[in-house]
Amino acid sequence: MIVRTCRAALLPLAVLLASAVWCGGAAAASLTIHAPEEAKQGSAVRVRVAVDEPLPRVAFTWLGKTIDAPTVAEGPDRVAEALLPVPVNASKDLIVQASAGALTGKATVRVLKVKWPEQQISVQKNYVNPPKETLKRIEGERKASAAAIGRVTPERHWRGPFVRPVPGVVTSAFGGKRMFNGEARSYHRGVDLRGAQGTPIKAMADGKVLIAQNMYFAGNTVYLDHGQGVISTYAHMSRLDVKPGESVKAGQQIGLVGATGRVTGPHLHLGVNILGVAVDPLSLVPQH
Ligand SMILES: [Zn+2]
């Protein structure tokens, strides 16, 4: 869907009503939103906004949150892009609002429902109901994780397309409703990819290392900040090859596949959060 709006002050009402795509002559400034018409629950939506004035930033508002993205020159226009999350439980159409200077516009993205599978998992008992002495550690890690995935920095490090971190197939899909030893836990907030112990893991995109440490449930874990609220996470690694604060390039090795934390065998648990909302990481990776 392409929605173009013009600066209202320059236009008579009749022109505004007559057309959403014609802005009444070259003198009128305009803002054009390129967004998909529909998107699946749990996917990432890529939205582009073009302005024909030299405006340095575009603010994208989505789910009540705002990303303030810098524009880059593209022909006579300036363009900004954002990745936006569709929550797994989104039930109505979502609206992206964009504004730059005095220009504003909005577009609607229809949400397609997904039938999420149920996943039965058996793990050691101490990972379903962790021993009391580990609760403080788990709570600290939960807070650090929440702070990392909720981070929204204005710089954009990501450039599409995103890299698949290991070649292995999906062994446990994103979004499954999880039962651990028969007890209901929340849905699977990432995707599990098959990988033998020691398989190199690549960064999905350029970014900065926020976390590289051992965690109770996730084992050896890396969190990468790709900017503008896009965070990728890699869990259960056998080895960490990066340190917090380090910059990484798309495709750079950040560690090795392992079986640390709450797992039944070696694999990569891969997560992507955008504006703190979990989406299917593979919705960002080109499918061949
Ligand atoms: Zn997983």
TrEMBL record:
One of its GO terms (molecular function) is metalloendopeptidase activity. The keyword Signal applies. InterPro entries: Cell_wall_metabolism_enzyme (IPR050570), Dup_hybrid_motif (IPR011055), M23ase_b-sheet_dom (IPR016047). Residues 1-28 form the signal peptide. Keywords: Signal. Residues 187-281 form the M23ase beta-sheet core domain. This is M23 family metallopeptidase. It comes from Candidatus Bilophila faecipullorum. The lineage of its organism: Bacteria, Pseudomonadati, Thermodesulfobacteriota, Desulfovibrionia, Desulfovibrionales.
